[in-house]
Amino acid sequence: MEVKKLDFGETLKDSVAIGVKNAPSVIAAVALWLITIWIPYLNVGTTIAITLLPTQLAKGEIVNPLGIFDSKYRRYMGEFFITMGLMIFPIFIGVLFMVIPGIVLSIAWTLSYYFLIEKGKNPIQAIKASNDATYGSKWTMFFVSLVVGVLFGIVFGIFQAICNAIGIGFITFVVMFILYVLAISISMSISASFWKQLKDNVE
User: Fold this and answer.
1) How far is 135 from 174, CA to CA, in rounded Å?
2) Which of 30, 101, 167, 195 is the most exposed place for a label (fewest CB within 10 A)?
3) Is the CA virtual torsion 133, 112, 21, 155 positive or negative?
4) What are phi and psi of 11, to 5 degrees?
5) Distances (CA, A) of 1 to 22, 92, 202
């Protein structure tokens, strides 16, 4: 099986295309998630739904913002938390070793939740599958995320300065909330492109 490796330009282009096509529904879904994240138990299902949203985007499906409240996502609660636990501790240890190993692991395991639920793998298999799928593409994934993060950070900083100059707390809150929603939505488009290109690297 030929292993697909990410191309920087192609990935950026694909991420933009996915983001533009689905912007309204993704933004609405993220906003609903943030607004209801304080509700116990419900927030578990919506968080899993939001985490898996890039897999829908990668398929070209039309995202229904209200779909994040579907009870089917809560059935994966145990596997989701086990996978999270298996990843957090090694990444934390990696961070202790001068940060870089932690960053590498977090990138290598980016697709774990997608393999867990979309491909029906168990937590350990999902983590290994993600590591295998991202082999040879980690640097590209890092630089795509870095470039988009820096650009958004500049935009965020500009709006933060404008809001501080205005000095009206409510306006600042609304603007920062909108920017945060947009940041998460952009991140989802990038993750969708990663998954779309790399998911077939693992049988």
Assistant:
1) 40
2) 167
3) negative
4) -70, -40
5) 32, 33, 9
